[in-house]
Amino acid sequence: MEYSYLHLGEKADPDEYVICKYRITTNLPMEKAAESLAAEQSTGTWTGISTLEKDIFQKYGGKVIDINENLVEVAFPTDDFSIEVGGVPQILSIIAGNLFGLHSIDKIRLEDVSFPKAIRECFPGPKFGASGLRNILDRPERPLVGTIVKPKIGLSPKDTANYVYESGKGGLTNSKDDETLVDQNFCPIQDRTVAIAESLDRLESEGHKMVHAINISTSGHKILEIGEKVQSWGAKQIMVDVLTCGFAAVQALAEDRSIKVPIHVHRTMHGAMTRDPLHGIAMLPIAKLCRMCGGDALHVGTLGIGKMEGHRKSDKDNIDACFDPSVGYKEVMPVCSGGVYPGVVDKIIKAAGNNVQIQAGGGVAGHPGGVRKGAMGMSQAVDAVFSGIDLNEYAKTHDELRVALKMWGSK
Ligand code: 3PG
Fold first, then answer.
1. Fewer CB within 10 Å: N-end or C-end of the chain?
2. CA-CA distance, 282 to 270, in Å (whole number)?
3. Burial letters for 330-347: b for 16+ Cβ neighbours within 10 Å, e otherwise?
4. How far apart are CA 158 and CA 164, in angstroms?
5. Strands 211-215 and 237-241, how do they pair?
6. Which atom of ligand 1 is nearest to the CA of 359?
7. Cα–Cα nearest to 340, from 81, 148, 156
8. String of DSSP letters for 175-213
9. DSSP percent split of the chain into helix, strand, coil, nearest 5
10. What is the pLDDT along the chain (411 residues), one digit of tens a residue?
11. Is-contact 218 226, C-beta < 8 A?
């Protein structure tokens, strides 16, 4: 018996269905392609099956509720999901699973998703969120301004800690390990964490609060142990590469009561999913899942300005997802990172607002005066924009910013 998964024009209650928006490219009639997607991801397969009873189809079948040119909305009943045991891995295998490989669909991109309250309530959301991070740093209003220790790999724990100290002296509120650094021989995680904690304590005793995110990205069975260890060695923030570790790694850390520091979420590898405008997974659903799982700060792009592919509108949508009040979680601190330097800080803040963390690796370490002056250049750019002063005007009385603007210009 074959049933139709087309329910065009029907309304799906967002508190009873997970509703997904897909962009589909196909040579087939769109209705046929959409139906094959809804069938494959719920109760069907490539042919009719004798075991699909009508009541199973009615209860659990995905519904194609809207087709607008190449944008298709599919509503999956909440009962299709196994949240307690399956979690995000099972959610993804429905909303972003086999569908990417179906012959009937040449290209498909998951553009957006909304989750019913019953599902959202099963996830922790951020423990600290944007406001918790601001409280720790005692920085209520200005954008957070940070760095990524460069070079990405190769520095010793002592040199890494020195970099952090110098950036704090230059006024930065945040620093972090890069995504490829975890526990290599040249920079063991324990020695690095201890040395950085000393730098941060020294900065605090000198009147400056700063946090550094230690990258604890590792295998699933080790992440809680490593998270707890780095905390005991003095880490004030931890970092997880969410797409290589899995969303569940962030959730495990957020739900672990013994983890008492914020989680910085890096999205390395996202380009494999997000870059093709017609295929893959947009950053928006990834951002929503990161918030649900408990990320406190999340890389969201640089609004089309930095070194990574991105767009002003879609990156702003990611930022809005960090703050959307309707989902019931704490707000996430959006992080703009990747090819950032002082001359673009005004454009980023103009597009993103003040509730943002702006980070520069090369834009700090590449300053001709060294890390401290590079950090000063970034801090001065943020101060200028926050105070409504043009960067070039501010640079007339702030040498480090002037040198940075001269070196990299602006956009
Ligand atoms: C990141 O983690 O976002 C990148 O390593 C940024 O480095 P960059 O500021 O030198 O581009």
1. N
2. 9
3. bbbbbbbbbebbbbbbbb
4. 10
5. parallel
6. 9
7. 148
8. EE--TT-SS-TTS-HHHHHHHHHHHHHHHHHTT---EEE
9. 45, 15, 40
10. 478 999 999 999 999 999 999 999 999 999 999 999 999 999 999 999 999 999 999 999 999 999 999 999 999 999 999 999 999 999 999 999 999 999 889 999 999 999 999 999 999 999 999 999 999 999 999 999 999 999 999 999 999 999 999 999 999 999 999 999 999 999 999 999 999 999 999 999 999 999 999 999 999 999 999 999 999 999 999 999 999 999 999 999 999 999 999 999 999 999 999 999 999 999 999 999 999 999 999 999 999 888 988 888 899 999 999 999 999 999 999 999 999 999 999 999 999 999 999 999 999 999 999 999 999 999 999 999 999 999 999 999 999 999 999 999 987
11. yes
150 included as an active-site residue: yes
User: For residues 334 and 356, is the Cβ–Cβ distance under 8 A?
Assistant: yes
Q: Which residue has the tokens 């480090």?
A: 400
> Using CB atoms within 10 A of its CB, is residue 31 exposed (0-12), middle (13-18) or buried (19+)?
middle
Contact indicator for 45, 102 with CB cutoff of 8 Å: no
Instruction: Give the Å distance between the CA of 361 and the centre of ligand 1.
Output: 5
**Given the residues 21, 127, 150, 176, the one annotated as active site:** 150
Q: Measured over all CA atoms, what is the biggest interatomic distance in the chain, rounded to whole angstroms?
A: 78
Cβ-based neighbour number of residue 369 at 10 Å: 14
Q: What is the DSSP string of 326-386?
A: GG-SPPPEEEEESS--GGGHHHHHHHH-SS-EEE-SHHHHTSTT-HHHHHHHHHHHHHHHH
Q: How far is the CA of 253 from the centre of ligand 1 (A)?
A: 24
Q: How close is the Cα of 65 to the center of ligand 1, in Å? A: 41
Written as one letter, the residue type at 83 is I
Closest Cα to atom 2, ligand 1: which residue? 178
